[in-house]
Write a structure and sequence with these properties.
59% helix, Rossmann fold, five-stranded parallel beta sheet, Alpha-Beta Plaits, 50 helices, alpha/beta
Length: 1233
């Protein structure tokens, strides 16, 4: 037996609920006999016990063991229904609307307090009369605000606001109904005490929450099933409320706070709720209601409404000139109509003495209340509130009774009395019917004619789509005044053609076109939506994913933006920092739900649909934001009716047709509309529908299963078909990985891993999923998450005792630790490799063995190891991979063999490895590694002095990297561009590319990658004489040089040493160079890296006036480069040798060295050193007494200097280059004779 009060299951023989104490006895409506729970017929008189028969008393534990209250008359509550609302409910019942739906509703519990004691004193017939009278006062307000009685329980009523007919303000309606109950019961309470001598009162509890609602019964009551504590909390609010009061939960309060005065109660423990609950007592309506929309403490400028604001200002300007007008603000809910009105009001308030502003609005529950719009307007004119007594209202109305020209006060007073239902003067009959309408229209016309003649006047009618027909007719009657008086009639409404307020638009554009302005608001653009987010959340580090999620959810609707941000703030995803001045993000908002206000607004729109289109919308929401007609038809059945239903949904602007070829396709106009429709479907039904959608996609699109894998996976996962979901999530992850959609790949692999845990997947599948997800993390520079992923695989191996999983985990961690990332740890990598290699051999896993050998190749290549060992490991790995046909492993190994070949000066082998790996990466469709192969080609081209070739390869690398969002390759490609342009004398480009590369490297967290760009930047700054910038760039690099990759430390030390030499800190330069030369196996490094410190030492020895040592070092560098076939730094080394020989007085050998330097630099087009070589040669010719040759050399050098200056970048950089002493001297000698 389920308790009707709290929904707790009880034993069949129970008479009272074990949870809340409510009686479970069933009362016979014929004889009043108490029957045991579950009885179908009365065991006293044989009467059938209907669904309406219920427990004898409602309330809680205080009734246990006490005499039960006699049953009131079981007349169904439909007799209290207003005819219009009864028709709506009957239609909902007939169509089965909402039967079996999840709905957020506001629940109202109301009971009669003191009824137990009173019942014992009275005859059952008297008691029935009292309770039936109380029911009338309890139920009437519920129906007035379009709530529905879900259950009558002894002396209590349970009502729902939000089902089967939803409104966007159901919580407000529930509280208004509660206030109506208290008002209505007040006189009845006194009558009961006077007639029967007993005291009764009512108490009301309200909560907002999730409920599964059933159909509407023949008695027009709602069937329902409680979800969680939603109804229990409403019941507890009622039980905790004092007699004659209304108590609401915080969930309800948040949605009604601007409209009602409340008293916050002390937090109290509530049974079944872990934390003490904050609740509120409703005291009454606020005299001036606030706004539910907007975020307290946050404001934003008017964004994206320039044209609309301009047209409003134009209407205002006309009014200033004495010209009246009609303005209609048209737009969907939330687009900012009211905001524009407020802005216009603020504009008028600056000149209030010249203008008069009056405003009124319609409420959604007043559509059947005649002249409600003008009642509110008149109340505002006289300063009256809804809570004023009749006498006080009449007194206030006197303020305008005598104001109307041409009307006697005695003739005007009855008009207002009838408008507000006030008692007129004794003996005077009230105005009614056409007589009242005629007089009201005359009085209103003369009132506003008079007001507008005194000063320009603005009359605002907000939310006209909710207006009652009488008010609309009166508004139309006032329109001619705008022809003759400075009167601006401004109304705002939604584009709802069936709304009565639509007639105002039609009349204005037809009859008053010359005075009519229609302003239709559209959603904000993506950029404008971003501006709004930025203006509300003044934070410089709003995560891109969170920002994109807000814009995706809200689609340019300012109200939706504000509500989603409000939800993020309430959920703690965004919060103020310690200063309270700025906002900071604590998450991505990935799981943000639809805000309650937005859900209510969207649900109310959906509720206006008939049953057929409504069900179609729900089914479509399961398919997705966009959906194919054929898929929907397959799961919906009755395809012939589907066309018409989709047409209705299009006219309601809920969906739109987006394509007919190759498939008829539709799209939900708003993502939140899809979510709102989906949220109403029962979980069990959702699973069934998702299974059907998945199977339909398989059948209808068999050739596109790979493309649709992610979609198929999500449907089968939602259907809890984990086997299929695992297959499709794996396929979707693999596809995303190939396309370098790494975030999507991670998400799909993570979902697949979750499914694998449900079905007990094989080791092979688990290894694939974990290693691929880890690799996707690595390629996204999310190295900590990659390590955590591999460690998770390690724990799983321990749990399952699976050595294959253990090997996969160790191997992956080895590669990660061996790679130059923030987790680089060669010692740990070597330890893991030494453990994994014998395990792979023990298990006979040759694929793993090839991978581990590859890891050892990386370690020996990039960690200052033995290049011969590196080559041996690499060739073993490559041979094993070839033997097994492992193309991906072959490509990885070949890629890293390039470094070993370069170190051993085997340029041809390095080139072959690059070309073979590139072909494999193309075949495999691995874009990141294809970009990497171009990067290796660029390094080789740079090393051999083919700077143009290096630029071409780097542009290919960058192009691929940008297309897939690979920051690592993008940054490295930009750095190589900087180095190549540096050699060509394009210092402006070099600085530009180095700065961009450095900025992008910051996103990867890779110190080495950042250093790569910083070094290029330092070199370029030094060449243009910007030593201050060079020093500022060098300082952070100096702090992290011990953390960067070993192979990069030589060039870093060389650049830093050059800065110190210029500063005169020769000891500091020597210390830097000595440290790098102490690196183990330094001389075994590839020549194109290793020579940089030696070249820097030649500069240092020259500066330290030690030409003999400098000559020895220069000869060593030149020999090393010749042996390796490397031309990078060769021209500079020969130039330095020439300068050393000049210092030693050996001018002939100096000229030979300089001419050789000139030849090499001309062949490579290395302008950055060529002009210096030519200038130095000119010195030699001067010494040799050959001024003509010297002048020619200086002229050639000057031409190159002019070229470099033209390519130095900004004017500041150009000037910095030209004022260097060597450059200035050269230019001076090349000046006019």
């Amino acid at each position: 037996m389920r308790c009707p009060t709290c929904q707790t299951e009880n034993p069949d023989e129970a008479k009272f609920c074990r949870e809340c104490g409510s009686s479970l006895l069933v009362i016979c409506s014929n004889c009043g006999h108490e029957n045991l729970p579950g009885s179908k017929f009365c065991n006293n008189c044989g009467q059938a016990l209907s669904a309406g028969s219920g427990p004898a008393a409602h309330s809680g534990p205080e009734h246990i063991g006490q005499q039960q209250i006699p049953a009131p008359d079981r007349t169904t509550p439909d007799r209290y229904l207003p005819p219009e609302f009864a028709a709506k409910l009957e239609e909902a019942r007939r169509e089965g609307a909402m039967e079996g739906e999840r709905r957020v509703v506001t629940m109202l519990f109301c009971d009669v307090k003191g009824s137990t004691a009173a019942a014992r004193q009275l005859d059952p017939e008297d008691w029935t009369e009292i309770i039936n009278g109380a029911f009338e006062h309890m139920i009437n307000p519920i129906y007035r605000y379009e709530g529905v009685v879900a259950r009558l329980m002894g002396d209590a009523v349970l009502a729902f606001f939000g089902a089967p007919i939803g409104h966007e303000n159901d919580p407000e309606r529930a509280v208004l109904a509660a206030l109506g109950i208290l008002d209505g019961i007040a006189n009845y309470r006194m009558a009961v005490e006077r007639n029967w001598g007993i005291k009764i009162d009512v108490r009301v509890g309200i909560n907002t929450g999730l409920v599964v609602v059933g159909g509407v019964g023949s008695d027009l009551r709602m069937e329902y099933t409680a979800m969680g504590d939603a109804i229990n909390l409403a019941s507890r609010m009622e039980q905790m409320a004092e007699p004659g009061t209304i108590q609401i939960t915080d969930e309800t309060y948040q949605q009604v706070a601007p409209f009602f005065e409340v008293e916050k109660l002390e937090a109290m423990a509530v049974k079944g709720v872990e934390q003490p609950m904050v609740t509120y007592r409703v005291l009454g309506r606020k005299a001036t209601p606030g706004l539910l929309r907007g975020i307290e403490g946050l404001d934003s400028p008017l964004i994206g409404r320039t044209r609309a604001w301009s047209r409003l200002q134009e209407a205002a300007a006309n009014l200033k000139r004495g010209v009246g007008g009609l303005v209609c603000l048209l737009g969907e809910a939330g687009l900012g109509k009211s905001r524009l009105v407020r802005e216009l009001q603020a504009n008028f308030e600056s000149c209030r003495s010249e203008f008069a502003w009056y405003e009124t609005f319609s409420q959604s529950y007043e559509t059947d209340l005649p002249y409600a719009l003008f009642q509110r307007l008149v109340r505002r004119l006289v300063g009256a509130s809804a809570g004023d007594s009749a006498a006080l209202l009449q007194e206030k109305l006197e303020a305008i009774v005598g104001e109307i020209p041409g009307e006697e006060e005695a003739a005007v007073r009855p008009v207002f009395d009838s408008l507000f239902g006030l008692q007129g003067e004794a003996g005077q009959p009230p105005l009614e019917g056409e007589a009242f309408k005629g007089r009201l229209f005359t009085v209103m016309e003369r009132l506003w004619r008079h007001r507008a003649s005194q000063c320009p006047t603005v009359l605002v009618f907000d939310d006209l789509h909710w207006s009652d027909p009488a008010s609309v007719t009166l508004l139309l009657h006032l329109m001619p005044l705008t022809e003759h008086f400075p009167l601006l009639l401004l109304w705002a409404m939604r584009p709802e053609r069936q709304a009565l307020g639509w007639q105002a638009k039609l009349t204005a554009e037809t009859d008053y076109d010359h005075r009519y302005t229609e302003i239709t608001l559209q959603p904000l653009s993506q950029a404008e939506g971003g501006q709004l987010v930025d203006s509300l959340l003044t934070m410089s580090d709003l995560p891109a994913l969170l920002r994109a999620r807000i814009l995706e959810k809200t689609e340019g609707n300012p109200f939706f933006v504000e509500e989603v941000i409000r939800t993020l703030i309430e959920d703690g995803v965004v919060r103020r920092d310690e200063t309270g001045q700025h906002w900071q993000a604590t998450g991505t908002g990935e799981a943000v739900e639809i805000p309650g206000n937005v859900l209510a607004l969207l649900t109310a729109r959906i509720d206006r649909l008939e049953a057929g289109p409504r069900r179609t919308l729900q089914l479509a929401s399961v398919v997705g934001r966009s959906f194919y007609f054929r898929v929907l038809a397959r799961i919906a059945g009755a395809a012939e009716a589907l066309d018409g239903q989709l047409l209705i949904l299009q006219r309601a602007e809920l969906v739109q047709e987006v394509a007919r070829v190759p498939e008829l396709e539709y799209l939900f106009r708003h993502a939140l509309t899809q979510e709102a429709a989906y949220s109403t479907i029962l979980l069990k039904q959702r699973r069934t529908y998702h299974q059907q959608v998945g199977e339909a996609l398989e059948v209808l699109f068999p050739e596109q299963r790979g493309e649709l894998a992610g979609n198929l996976a999500s449907h089968f996962y939602a259907a809890r078909d984990f086997e299929k979901a695992l297959d499709y999530y794996t396929a979707a992850g693999d596809r995303a990985f190939r396309l370098h959609a790494l975030a999507e790949a991670v998400e799909h692999y993570s979902q697949a891993i979750a499914c694998a845990g449900q079905v007990g997947a094989s080791s092979k599948r688990l290894i694939h999923l974990y290693t691929r997800r880890g690799r996707a993390y690595e390629l996204s520079s999310r190295f900590d998450e990659a390590l955590a992923n591999y460690q998770e695989l390690e724990r799983l191996a321990d749990e399952l005792g699976d050595r294959a999983l253990e090997l996969a985990s160790m191997t992956a961690q080895c590669i990660l630790r061996a790679t130059q990332t923030s987790l680089y740890n060669p010692q740990e990598a070597r330890k893991l490799a030494e453990q994994a290699l014998p395990l792979s051999q023990e298990l006979g896993d040759r694929a793993a063995e090839a991978k581990i050998l590859w890891g050892l190749l990386i370690l020996e290549s990039w960690s200052g190891g033995d290049p011969n060992k590196a080559l041996a490991y690499g060739e073993r790995s490559l041979a094993t991979a070839r033997d097994l046909g492992l193309k991906e492993q072959m490509a990885f190994t070949l890629t890293n063999l390039v470094a070993a070949y370069l170190t051993l000066s085997r340029l041809e082998a390095a080139n072959r490895a690059v070309l073979e790996s590139r072909a494999l990466w193309l075949e495999l469709g691995n874009a990141p590694m294809l970009a990497d192969s171009y990067g290796l080609a660029g390094i080789i081209r740079w090393s051999v002095g083919d700077f143009e070739g290096a630029i071409t390869a780097s542009h290919e690398r960058i192009h691929i990297s940008q297309s897939i969002g690979n920051d690592w390759n993008h940054s490295a490609g930009l750095a190589m561009l900087a180095y190549a342009h540096y050699e060509l004398g394009h210092f402006g480009h070099s600085i530009e590319f180095a700065e961009k590369g450095w900025q992008i490297s910051e996103k990867t967290g890779n110190f080495s990658l950042g250093a790569y760009s910083r070094i290029a930047l330092i070199l370029a700054y030094m060449q243009i004489g910007a030593w201050q910038q060079a020093q500022e760039t060098a300082e952070p690099l100096d702090e992290v040089r011990d953390k960067i990759a070993i192979f990069m430390r030589p060039i870093a030390a060389a650049a830093l040493a050059q800065v110190k030499i210029e500063q005169g800190d020769l000891e500091g330069a020597e210390r830097l160079l000595a440290e790098v030369l102490e690196i183990a196996d330094f001389e075994a490094m590839a020549a194109h890296w290793a020579v940089f410190p030696h070249v820097a030492r030649v500069h240092l020895l020259l500066a330290d006036d030690d030409p003999e040592s400098a000559l020895e070092k220069a000869n060593y560098v030149i020999g090393r480069l010749d042996q390796a076939g490397i031309r990078l730094q060769l021209a500079e080394s020969l130039w330095l040798k020439g300068k050393v020989l000049m210092a030693l007085g050996n001018w002939g050998q100096a000229k030979e060295a300089l001419l050789e330097a000139k030849t090499h630099s001309e062949q490579t087009n290395g302008r950055q050193i060529l002009w210096q070589i030519l200038a130095t040669l000119a010195e030699v010719e001067d010494w040799r007494g050959n001024p003509a040759a010297a002048r020619q050399l200086r002229s050639q050098a000057g031409e190159i200097v002019d070229y470099i200056a033209a390519n130095a970048g900004c004017e500041e950089q150009r000037v910095s280059f030209l004022i260097q002493p060597e450059v200035a001297a050269l230019q001076a000698t090349n000046g006019p004779d």
